[in-house]
Structures are given as structure tokens and as C-alpha cells.
Specification:
It contains seven helices and six strands; from the N terminus they run αβααβααβααβββ. It has 181 residues and is of the alpha+beta class. The protein has two domains: 74 residues, Recoverin, domain 1; 87 residues, Protein Inhibitor Of Neuronal Nitric Oxide Synthase. Strand 5 and strand 6 form a beta hairpin.
Length: 181
């Protein structure tokens, strides 16, 4: 059962006590796993079709004790940022910083030209919108910068990675309604 526990804990990086199908999709993609895992887990752990797999239901189906999962989480130790990430400024939960930092490192691997940076910025914004919810702004800076920004409480993170600064901040909790005339 340890591989199942480790997988669940890896997917629930924010330690919410539940995961979504989107969380599963991101995990499968990030770890290059068989996409059928998403369907299998949904059928096993979310038979009611709620869209969430709770830690309680996960334990119930596998015959695990909630205390065992919590102990396993503690054994993994406190979550930390990747050592290549240098925090410039943060007003965000560490678990969310880790999510954004890991995704930036993963996406950075596909960069081969300066033009790819536009795609990287778009991809990171889309990821933040999906994974953390709301509406995010993402800026990638090569060199010095000064910024003043308005953001939702506990939803801003700036860090340096591989010689560039990455700025993330959430400006709204919901997608704006765009009215076309």
C-alpha cells in the first residue's frame, strides 16, 4: 500500500485532504504515467462522481488508517523548495510556493530559445490558474526590475531560478466575465 500512499501524498502537495481529477492529470503528466490511472482512481475512490477524492475515502477503499497516512506524511519531513530556487519575496503558503516552483523547473526544461519564454510565461499562468484557482499574473524577468502590484492576500511569490526572476501573483479569485459587444 506504500506506493498508493506515496502517490496520494505527492498529488495532495497542498495537504488539503482531497485531490481533484485535475490534480491527478497533473501528477500523471509530470511523472509520465499511464493516463488510465486517472480513470481507475476516479472509479475506485470517487464512485459517487463528486470530482474529489478525499483522504478519508482513499483510506476507506484501501483499508488504511488515516493515522498511517498522516504518519507517512510526517516521515517525509517538512516540504521544502527546490535548492535551485532563491526566494526574492513571498506572501504565500510554502506548499503553494513549492507547487509553482516545481512547475517552473519542469516547464523550464522545454526552453531552448528566447522565443520559448513567451510560451513559458503563458504555460505557467495557465498552470497557476488551474492548479491554484483564480486569475494569476506571471512575469519572467531577465535582469533588474522594480514592481508595485496589487494581489490577493497570501497569493504572491517572487523567486530567482537559473538567472531569471519569476513573479507570480493572484489578482482575482474568479475568472472575469468578459462582455463582448
Amino acid at each position: 500500500m506504500e506506493p498508493f500512499m506515496d502517490a496520494y501524498l505527492s498529488i495532495d502537495r497542498r495537504q488539503r485532504g482531497w485531490i481533484t481529477e485535475k490534480d491527478l492529470e497533473n501528477y500523471v503528466q509530470r511523472n509520465k504515467l499511464d493516463p488510465s490511472m486517472i480513470t481507475r482512481w476516479s472509479e475506485l475512490f470517487d464512485a459517487e462522481g463528486t470530482g474529489r477524492i478525499t483522504l478519508e475515502k482513499f483510506c476507506e477503499v484501501l483499508g488504511l488508517k488515516l493515522a498511517d497516512i498522516q504518519k507517512r506524511r510526517e516521515e517525509h519531513g517538512p516540504a521544502t523548495l527546490h535548492p535551485d530556487i532563491k526566494v526574492i519575496w513571498e506572501n504565500m503558503a510554502l506548499t503553494d510556493q513549492i507547487i509553482l516552483g516545481e512547475e517552473t523547473i519542469q516547464e523550464f526544461k522545454s526552453i531552448s530559445t528566447e522565443e520559448d519564454l513567451t510560451r513559458l510565461s503563458e504555460s505557467l499562468k495557465s498552470f497557476a490558474d488551474r492548479q491554484l484557482g483564480g486569475v494569476w499574473q506571471v512575469v519572467i524577468v531577465d535582469g533588474s526590475y522594480w514592481t508595485t502590484q496589487t494581489f490577493l492576500p497570501n497569493m504572491a511569490f517572487q523567486f530567482e531560478l537559473y538567472g531569471r526572476a519569476y513573479l507570480f501573483w493572484q489578482t482575482a479569485e474568479d475568472e472575469p466575465n468578459i462582455i463582448k459587444t
